[in-house]
Design goal:
Helix content: under 10%
Structural class: mainly beta
Number of domains: 1
Strand content: 35-45%
Distance between the termini: 18 Å
Order of helices and strands: EEEEE
Shape: globular
Strand order of the largest sheet: 2-1-5-4-3
Largest sheet: 5 strands, antiparallel
Radius of gyration: 12 Å
Number of strands: 5
């Protein structure tokens, strides 16, 4: 299972990280727009909307090399 942090992006592009995290093992559904995160603990986030206000999910371990138990994690797009 992958642990995700929740992010919010405002219409002006300001990004905030929620303190809530959860485990999920499956497709990310509408979270298909991958984007980089700079200055945050996670390195990437999957947004519902490519631009503007959106909610995003960021894997706590962004790559299999970060955490061997993740294996080959593939995200639905």
């Amino acid at each position: 299972m992958t642990i995700y942090a929740i992010y919010t992006r405002t219409a002006k592009g300001t990004v905030q990280r929620d303190h809530f995290m959860f485990e999920w093992n499956g497709p990310l559904g509408p979270y298909v727009h991958e984007g980089p995160l700079k200055g945050w603990p996670e390195s990437k986030v999957f947004w519902i909307y490519e631009k503007g206000h959106s909610i995003g999910l960021a894997p706590i371990c962004a790559s299999p090399s970060d955490s061997p138990e993740l294996g080959d994690t593939t995200f639905a797009q």
